[in-house]
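For consistency, the fold was encoded as tokens, as this record shows:
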Amino acid sequence: MARLADYFVLVAFGPHPRGSAEGQGQILQRFPEKDWEDNPFPQGIELFCQPSGWQLCPERNPPTFFVAVLTDINSERHYCACLTFWEPVEPTQEGLCTEDTAEREEEAGEGGPVGLSTAAPGPPGQLFAPKTLVLVSRLDHAEVFRNSLGLIYTIHVEGLNVGLENVVGNLLTCIIPLAGGSQRTISLGAGDRQVIQTPLTDSLPISRCSVALLFRQLGITNVLSLFCAALTEHKVLFLSRSYQRLSDACRGLLALLFPLRYSFTYVPILPAQLLEVLSTPTPFIIGVNAAFQAEAQELLDVIVADLDGGTVTVPECVHIPPLPEPLQSQTHSILSMVLDPELELADLAFPPPTTSTSSLKMQDKELRAVFLRLFAQLLQGYRWCLHMVRIHPEPVIRFHKAAFLGQRGLVEDDFLMKVLEGMAFAGFVSERGVPYRPTDLFDELVAHEVARMRADDSHPQRVLRHVKELAEQLYKNENPYPAVAMHKVQRPGEASHLRRAPRPFPRLDEGMVQWIVDQATAKMQGAPPAVKAEKKTTVPSGPPMTAILERSSGLHGNSARRLEVVRNCISYVFEGKMLEAKKLLPAVLRALKGRAARRCLAQELHLHVQQNRAVLDHQQFDFVVRMMNCCLQDCTSLDEHGIAAALLPLVTAFCRKLSPGVTQFAYSCVQEHVVWSTPQFWEAMFYGDVQTHIRALYLEPAEDRDPSQVCGDSLGPRDGAGLALAHVRPLGQVGEALTQEDERSALDVASEQRRLWPTLSREKQQELVQKEESTVFSQAIHYASRMSYLLLPLDSSKSRLLRERAGLGDLESASNSLVTNSMAGSVAESYDTESGFEDAETCDVPGAVVRFINRFVDKVCTESGVTSDHLKGLHVMVPDIVQMHIETLEAVQRESKRLPPIQKPKLLRPRLLPGEECVLDGLRVYLLPDGREEGAGGSRGGPALLPAEGAVFLTTYRVIFTGMPTDPLVGEQVVVRSFPVAALTKEERINIQTPSDQYLPDGLQLRSCTFQLLKMVFDEEVGSDSAELFRKQLHKLRYPPDIRGTFALTLGSAHTPGRPPRATKDKGPSFRTLSRNLMKNAKRTIGRQYVTRKKYSPPSWEHRGQPPPGDQEDEISVSEELEPSTLTPSLALKPSDRMTMSSLVERACCRDYQRLGLGTLSSSLSRAKSEPFRISPVNRMYAICRSYPGLLIVPQSVQDNALQRVSRCYRQNRFPVVCWRSGRSKAVLLRSGGLHGKGVVGLFKAQNAPSPGQSQADSSSLEQEKYLQAVVSSMPRYADASGRNTLSGFSSAHMGSHVPSPRARVTTLSNPMAALASRRTAPRGKWGSVRAGGRSGGLSTDVGTRLAGMGPPQANGAPADPGFLRPQRAALYIIGDKAQLKGVRPDPLQQWELVPIEVFETRQVKGSFKKLLKACVPGYPATEPGSASFLCSLEDSEWLIQIHKLLQVSVLVVELLDSGSSVLVSLEDGWDITTQVVSLVQLLSDPFYRTLEGFRLLVEKEWLSFGHRFSHRGAHTLAGQSSGFTPVFLQFLDCVHQVHLQFPMEFEFSPFYLKFLGYHHASHRFRTFLLDSDYERIELGLLYEEKGERRGQAACRSVWEYVERLSKRTPVFYNYLYAPEDAEVLRPYSNVSNLKVWDFYTEETLAEGPPYDWELAQGPPEPPEEERPDGGAPQSRRRVVWPCYDNCPRAQPDAISQLLEELQRLETELGRPPERWKDAWDRVKAAQRLEGRQDERGTPSSLLVSSVPHHRRSLGVYLQEGPVGSTLSLSLDSDQSSGSSASGSRQAARRSTSTLYSQFQTAESENRSYEGTLYKKGAFMKPWKARWFVLDKTKHQLRYYDHRVDTECKGFIDLAEVEAVAPGTPTLGAPKTVDEKAFFDVKTTRRVYNFCAQDVPSAQQWVDQIQSCLSDA
């Protein structure tokens, strides 16, 4: 029984103490005046009566009512029912409050939430003040409160003749029952009557209609979100203008959470003064008036539900986990059935007449029933996961979260995990876990209805029926008596509030009210308490959770056969049949991936344990440990499947004798698993064991057991068996397996004990409590020693354990997570920490273990109620236990080292190159599989070659692994993986379990830029010192202190990497001294200092880190009068005595200049004036520009002394020089560094502000302008017409949004459609051959999606043809960084034009390459199968986008050059992207560079001579380590590879040649790609030493020399398809969809390592060709080729290579000297040409393509818009593209399937599958015409021609579009003489074609042919 109301309070408006216009509440009276003992008066009621603040009002408002909720310090809720009415202000108040009327009005205008009218107030007498009647109660009877307060207000307003004191007194003394379903009628003594119904059970919440209203206001999805948010402890804020609605919404949300109780802050109505509560860090459910919405918006982590607007706003930073599927979707659909029953019938043709909708109250219960059912499904079987830790004096219950999640298969589910970790669930366990208590609806539902719910899931109607049944019960709980007698309560009359009240609310007589209360209290004390005893019962547990089916993949399904294999293997081990066991072991280890097999193993092993011990021999011990490790390696830290729990007793049982008195237990070999360092695992295990023993304690008397057997610390088989079967039987009763005679679970036993507890004597109670406490204590001691077994490593000096285990290392955290080094490394890795080298750390193992155990003991003993004395004793014991165990382990470790070592495979020594020396001999390692499938079999087929066991070798050149697969079933294949030391990009430590399931902590992962990954773990025999030495030596070799330490330079010299490099003075001045001297002389001699944007400046300059070039002044002022004569050679380099002009002339640059006719250099340095350009020796001493070659091409008219001044305007002094000239258009390509602020751009900028040195800067710019003018004048003047072209035809989404000012004359590449308007005939050249489609690059504003202005027809990224260039063009286009060219004005002479583009920086290349490496060579297997994850990673890397940009810019430049304009590429510092672009442009424009000799010349000229910084970009030395590897050259090779793919017949070299260069540019095997410029190579003496010095030596120092030698022996670098067309310009497609991932990045050969060191890749060295032995008969022995293992091109060579080899072999057999392969090939080609000429079949070009028409060779069709309409030209030579009709152009624009069928057809006729004459009806109103039709099955087309001999196709029907071929009927104008049956129709997706054959048979023939062609497709 309880009081209906505890307090009645009258609160009125009072002035604010600080005199502000807003008042405050004052309590006028409260009854009773003394606090009740059991319920003190709640503080702060005044705030809650007027939540929006106490304000005066200009007019009377109607009375309002709402219920606020206050929560006291004991979490008790007090319901405050508030009825507010308004009374005129008394004069005293008026005086106070009229002082600041304006301010008050303003506040009222802000929308006080009590509905203030904004009408102007009347005279001061007209103000009204609020007064509130408050009823405080602990019961929630809102309607009764409303009626009672309404009655008091009515008596006052209507002036009824009833004493208010009596009414209040009666109200305060009214006593009603709490629950039990009784009905009580009460009267307050004013002629009223009210009926109060109490609910049947107190535990079910009362919701009235609040849940239904909540759904009505917010909708299903929003309410579900709020439900999940409240359960997962997020902050929820309700907004509404109505306080009653806020209360209802909060009550409704709480009702949905049942059976969980919300235990955080709960304030349905929050007063304005307390709004700061909203920024509390804890979760809450709070309601606030909508007027304060603005304050709510500032909160970043609060979910805001607007009840009036029906919205729920979830902030971005908040993630609400949804319900697990399928519960989420099932709940959603059943809620919609409840809320909208007509939804199901909406589509019925004959809907039933009416459907009865539930009342709001009933709908409310139905909605609650849905959620009640949901909780029953979520928590089904929860009682089987409860651990009964203590029964007396109070039950202590713990929940085994991991087992629950594991049984449900929801370990990964975010929602359930958070719910189980939440406070609400902890309360649920302690409240509902109790085994003996009153039960309610939820207990019944979760115990008995689970099976029904599961069966109903797929039948919505049955679910609905169940929901309605539950709703009935909920409704009956709230309304037990259906026919409620009518209430009778007086109400005030209509608009009574507007009548002028006769007087204010009277002051009540306190004495009288108190007397009534006292009387009632005295009467109550005399009466017996009418408390209904609660009926307690044993809570039903329901059916156990049936284990969810194995969720593992089909690979490891647990068939009975697999379990049989596990059992057989174990029985073989224990029977000593080791050979049999060894055969089965691999299968067992695979089977153990499945859960059932792991359980089976634990059960089988238990059978072999007698009396706690099982002594094994060494082999048996190894087998058992290996299987245990395999089981444990897949255990998560939670151990949700109980595998670690089942194995824990076993690891302390299995042992082997090492020597007399020394025994090694299995636990010392299975420690390295995450589960052992997880506190939650130990707690769950401990509580499980305690439960078993407590249960046994109470079963013991009945079964006459020996108590010591149950309660002792021994670890008997009982302990183990219970745990092993824990998951086979439900987890709650671990001991159940033993006591079949007594099937009672621990909960049943506890329930019985709790029932008996009150009947026991005090002594007996004390005895039981003591027994339980000592049971827990003994288990705590037992677990302390168990934990020390598994946490102390065998070798306590190995501290890796600590660093590796977060649970131990981080002493304060009892963290559940584990971050291994490798994981931490990958998370924390930043893009600029290149070397992953890290140092070991040391820490105190025993101390950490003691702390870990102490934390565990503290927690479990406190929770289990162990006495403090016992706990202190435990703390003293733990260090002793640990110390004793360490001493035992020392003996074990000593003896275990004496064991005979297991026979390991022999180390296989790798083959070395000449000059390659071993630095560290083989260290035994396991090579582990990484993310690539090749080694693991995978989709490529083949066996699992990895993991492999072998050794790693470190040589002066490479890191090499050789070994054999650990899987004995694979066979004895040798696995080789290696990469050059110089290519190492990342080294990190890893901790991984090895295949043999021994945990070897020392692991390394080495990643190289040649796309190799060595992921290896050192064998235990390799000490940590050796591993550390390996890392240090590797580091030393990777980053030598000096470039002379690299392999290419030490090869054959005495210098070895182990020694420090020789003092550099021997060689002449060092870089540093040289730099110093040069710096001293800089002002006097050389001129302007380099100003660099990058951190690096060429080695000769010490000046680093200057600000980026802007408009700042030069730091070294240069006098204008400097004459070239001051540039004396003596100031330049010492080696100058050797640097004669003749040696310069021999350089690649000079040879190429002479080939291009760009000038001559006679011995007397005289020059022919007729030449427009000349070769200038001005830089022969490298004085003007360090990074340029010695000889440069400059305009004839420019004097050498002017060049120095020009060079100051450019970064790194790299001024514009000519590097190539078009033979046809005579346009030239120039390159330079980017401009300084003082350059052309500075010249263009309208700078008015004078700055110091302005005149000097101007003069410099004038020089530059003159220089550009000279370049323009040196070109053929073909563009003299007045019209000027701006590149407006280019489309440039990528050129950014740069809009120049109206007078700007900067070309912005925009307006794609202009291209279509002004097309002209295409130039000569060819487009790439990739089918269009896919995405178009996806760039935003970078170098552009379609730089070169395609209109719609070119879907491929090919530029539209250069009609965008009107015949008048700028003579020179300058392509520069967009960032430099902002805000420029027209150049003064209108000669050149700026093209600003955005290019990526080298750091983006570096970052992109890192991601590409990880995508192509992932360190870990992909999470999702298939290629999806690879493609995602590839896209993330943006590598292909960068390739796309480079190709695009290059094609743009090619277009400009081909159309006759010259181009200057002036990007960044002129040595990265500039080099890529100019090299690509020359490659595309000049066929010479597509030969082997030409490509070498191109690389030597543009990359080596023009100073690409190979050493800096490749981080060749220690100094460059921090800058990391930036593969600019590799990116260029990738671009060449993309072009090669599209034009396979244009390149003399093979794709292998590009891979070879890609590998060796980073390998340091050759000297070619070392150092940053010719200048540095000369200083080191590398450039000219080659002359005749060591031609005879074996070691090639130059990569070109090596290629030349190898090409003589083998055609590996030659492309057989090579058949160039003269002067062919290539225009590749550049869209990302047309680019392919280079197989250099992904291919791997495990048989021999990378195939680029040819001597090593060829197996044992073959005898030289001359000495080859005679008569080797061909071997017919077949061999298996594995794509994952063998080098496929070598194992299966192409036909031509095989024929050439065969030819050489036969010649050798005949005793002739074999002919060189090249000679033989040339002879065959010549013969073929001759034959072709005799047959007169097309143009002779090569063996394969002698007669292919041009368009066949170019692999594609593209559109040309000619001056006369559009034409479809299938030929790419402009002379063949004239005069064809426009009929087919649209289809061609669609790029139909025909473009795929491309290239290697030798004659047109082969494509004519069937041909003949047919009549065809034209389009609408057109006549029938006879045409020659050709059916082409290859291209899948029906083409037609005017005549049989006609070669030009008039049009075609794409058979891909044909839907049907059917008989036709003659139409108007059809041929008269033909039979009707000769007509047929071909229906396509676009139209119907009518055909007519000459007779019926031929018509039938045509129809059959077309049909067969369609069916073939």
About this structure: The chain has 59 helices and 46 strands. The chain has a mean pLDDT of 75. The longest strand covers residues 77-88. The radius of gyration is 46 Å.
